[in-house]
Amino acid sequence: MKKVVKFGGSSLASAEQFKKVGEIIRADKSRRFVVPSAPGKRFSADIKVTDMLYDCYAAAEQGENFDEKLSAIKERYEEIISGLGLSLSLEGEFGEIAENFGKKAGKEYAASRGEFLNGRVMAEYLGYAFVDAAEVIRFCEDGSFDEGETDRLLHERLSQYECAVIPGFYGAMADGTVKTFSRGGSDITGSLVARAIHADIYENWTDVSGFLVTDPRIVENPQVIASITYKELRELAYMGATVLHEDAIFPVRKEGIPINIRNTNRPQDRGTMIVESTCKKPKFTITGIAGKKGFCSIYLEKSMMNSEIGFCRKVLQVFEDEGISIEHMPSGIDTMTVFVHQDEFEEKEQRVIAGIHRAVKPDFLELEADLGLIAVVGRGMKSARGTAGRIFSALAHANVNVKMIDQGSSEQNIIIGVENRDFEAAIKAIYDIFVNTQL
Ligand code: ASP
User: Fold this and answer.
1) Which of 175, 299, 370, 428 is deepest in the core (most CB within 10 A)?
2) What is each CA distance from 278 to 281, 364, 376, 381, in whole angstroms?
3) Tens of pLDDT, residues 373-405
4) Residue 257 C-alpha to ligand 1 middle, in angstroms?
């Protein structure tokens, strides 16, 4: 059995957190490949090492003195090293970093040092080999990620080790120029390593006990989702549920490797299993509820619209020409509505209106702003009767006016449009009817 374990920044923010991580790894011999993030926040007002590095490098780039900023970063590591009782010295590494900052080695190089250094500490603490991600995670010359070459390099290199630490978040081009993924990208490294070594499971350790059925800022103490499919996760993540970097799903998904989201502070919790497919029924018919505010709708009416071939295409062309992406597009017999992100749309609205008039000459056009979209997602909905009925009666009871309904053709999601001000009440009502009232 081979497991890849990735630990997020809050799991590695201090020596105390490192010790928990050490215990987790030592508790299971199959936890052989470890992907650490950079030290995160120790308390809510704290600053992540990655952000300290960005800040320090910005000073270096401006030609300012950055000694103090770099010393503060060094102190974070020294505190961890001494708290763990290690004799490791990072003097050499910090000397090299200062030199490279002076030579303006780049923002991505700067940010990557958080993981690089934490990887060194972790390897020393565990007695595992250290594999520099710059040697095994490859980016192309144009800066895009080189998936094929990365898989080959990782596989070749990691098969030489029984156990190894591979820092997350960064890699390099063939000429050695360091590149990073987007923020939170250590999740992607973990997934790439899991695929390359054909892991049985990819454990992603963080500070929550898995994916929650809905946003804890809206519903107090929501239940944890025990198992979720990649597809469901994608739908929920798209609508704002975040625990895992979006791009972390693809490498393991291709290989059918499950991801287990676990809590470093509560290792006894089983967390959430993210799988390709499962026979296990979701506990509450629905798997999760997520949503986003800040949409607006463009409503069009034209008699005989439905028999006018190419009508929709002409309308959509106007949005495409303006570079606006479309979120949803429910339609009626002589009506059609287009949902877009308000912030993308606002500054272009008059051009879009004029474009639509020119393209299809509608009888009536109306804009509505400040709308929220809520996705109710669940593989269990396909086989359960009355799901939509339950949702809408719950919303009616909560006095929420539903502006739009769109059931995805996968029958795994229902999207509901409401006014921004009804957004929280709507999510609470849906959670309540499925989770609290009828288990
Ligand atoms: N340390 C990086 C960040 O703060 C990457 C990561 O933690 O995954 O975004």
Assistant:
1) 428
2) 8, 47, 19, 14
3) 999 999 988 878 888 889 999 999 999 999 888
4) 23
Burial 11-46 (b: 16+ CB within 10 A, else e): bbbbbebbebbeebbeeeeebbbbbbbbbbbbeeeb
Would you state the structure tokens that stand for residue 326, as one six-digit string? Answer: 């479309």
- Check: CB of residue 172 under 8 Å from CB of residue 139: yes
Distance CA 11, CA 116 (A): 16
Q: Of the residues 35, 50, 116, 118, which should be mutated to test ligand 1's pocket, given the most ligand atoms within 8 Å of the CB?
A: 50
Q: Token match 């992607």: residue?
A: 188
**Residue 170 Cα, ligand 1 centroid: separation in angstroms?**
10
C-beta of 19 in contact with ligand 1 (< 6 A): no
Q: Which tens digits make up the pLDDT trace of 303-341? A: 988 788 999 999 999 999 999 999 989 888 899 999 999
CA distance 74 to 10: 18
pLDDT, averaged across the chain = 94
Q: What are phi and psi of 118, to 5 degrees?
A: -65, -35
Question: Rounded to an integer, what distance in angstroms lies between the CA atom of residue 121 and that of residue 22?
Answer: 12
